Amino acid sequence: MGEPDYYQILGVSREAGLDDIKLAYHRLAARYHPDLHPEDPDAEARLRSLNQAYATLRDPERRAQYDRWGPWGPPPWAPPQATPSRAWIAAAIQHMLHVHGHVQAHKPQRGQDQRYTLSIAPQNGRRGTEARLRVPTSRWCPQCSGSRMAGGKAPYQCPQCRGAREIWQPTWLLPALRVCTVCQGEGVIITDPCAHCAGRGTVRVVRTLTIDIPPGVQNGARLRLRGEGEPGRWGGEPGDLLVEIRIRPELDRTPPTPP
Fold first, then answer.
1. Do residues 106 and 67 lie in contact, with contact meaning Cβ atoms separated by under 8 Å?
2. pTM of the complete model beyond 0.90
3. Could you tell me the maximum CA-CA distance found in the chain, to the nearest angstrom?
């Protein structure tokens, strides 16, 4: 929800050591340096995102805080407006639940599996072949580093719920929590959305993969490519790509056997 994932930006796992982080940073910084891509409007923003991620993950203290709370820190305490002690007790319990949920949300999350249907000719299924796949996937927006705000700025805290995503409303018995109507339960306000990703924090890109189709593959067979699915979050491993084979007789160009 509008938070840059530094592990995804650097392409490293949550367990990566400092040497691995340094190696990933220098490799990507050399690849995407603006001087090497004068025609790429995203090159400077991409390097800025790499610098931001590296500055956090190379510092043990900042990294530990990031691993626990994410880039914007712990959820804020939003006390109820009511004065009865039972309302404060309920608010304190709800805040502890928010803190627990916040910590859980920033643990490594495996990426989603992707599915791809590949049509091949019968002759290629019989003898095996090599296929090139163009697979759409999501990646962090280089212009905002995934924050959804122009320039990579942090979103503004919602003035009504103060980041809690819910507000206390009085009822006839006890105050009740309701989804904040100002931020629609996001806890933040996107006042200046990133134009590159339209405020989504991610962009769609197309990857080209070359795979080997084994000889004798059957129609409906499914090949699993480990780690080629959607990227994970917070250092989680990527999902898999599931390639379903469709045998299409109309694609077979084998000349007929003479009588």
1. yes
2. no
3. 96
Say whether 249 sits in a helix, a strand or coil.
Answer: helix
Spatial contact of 52 and 145, defined as CB atoms under 8 Å apart:
yes
CB atoms within 10 A of CB 132: 9
Q: Which residue has the tokens 């305490």?
A: 77
Q: 127-172: per-residue pLDDT in tens? A: 999 999 999 988 888 888 788 888 777 787 788 777 767 776 766 6
Locate 21 and state its tokens: 């982080």
Is-contact 244 220, C-beta < 8 A? Answer: yes
Alpha carbons 77 and 89: distance in angstroms, whole number: 13
pLDDT in tens, 28-70: 888 878 777 777 777 777 888 889 899 999 999 999 999 988 8
Q: Tell me if 152 sits within 8 A of 144, measured CB to CB.
A: yes
